[in-house]
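Colleagues,

Please find the record for the two-part complex below.
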Amino acid sequence: EAGVVQSPRYKIIEKKQPVAFWCNPISGHNTLYWYRQNLGQGPELLIRYENEEAVDDSQLPKDRFSAERLKGVDSTLKIQPAELGDSAVYLCASSLIQTEQYFGPGTRLTVT
Amino acid sequence: GNSVTQMEGPVTLSEEAFLTINCTYTATGYPSLFWYVQYPGEGLQLLLKATKADDKGSNKGFEATYRKETTSFHLEKGSVQVSDSAVYFCALSYSANDMRFGAGTRLTVKP
């Protein structure tokens, strides 16, 4: 069974540019999470979806970050415009409701 | 608020050495406790978990016991291998949807 797929794996952009990350969760998993992992830190939740609905986006910086999960499957996380402080690894995870989260390999973003 | 504190790394051990990575937590009530492992270039994987006080989680030779009296969940392994080199994260949650992670401890095992 395929795991959580993320792309791209690496992205380098200049500040003020837009960037988007894509996540394909494990088939059948209705809950999807986006985390940000700063260097030397643990992951921090940005947003959680149950099916198409964003049920927890309290930590998402809504002035520049947006996310969508069309049809309750794939999800896209966007940053526009990117700032230097956005350099981090962006992790996607999925799960069935109230069960173990399965993580993708992450997208490493570098903003110069 | 709810949080997890784990020992700072990096930790460097020789093969077959005994491993302890300390983890303490701050929380109200009785959260579930977890250890995740992140191998180079991969996502986090659940290593073990414990859902109530005095529970012991174990997997792949790793163990951790949920100690309510000391609010701890220390990770141990009796004999580490080179393949155990990774970053280890302690985490807590009240539901699988709300996970709080520690900063991670990098372990390097030398042959």
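Chain A touches chain B through 24 residues (CB under 8 Å).

Comments are welcome before we finalize the supplementary table.
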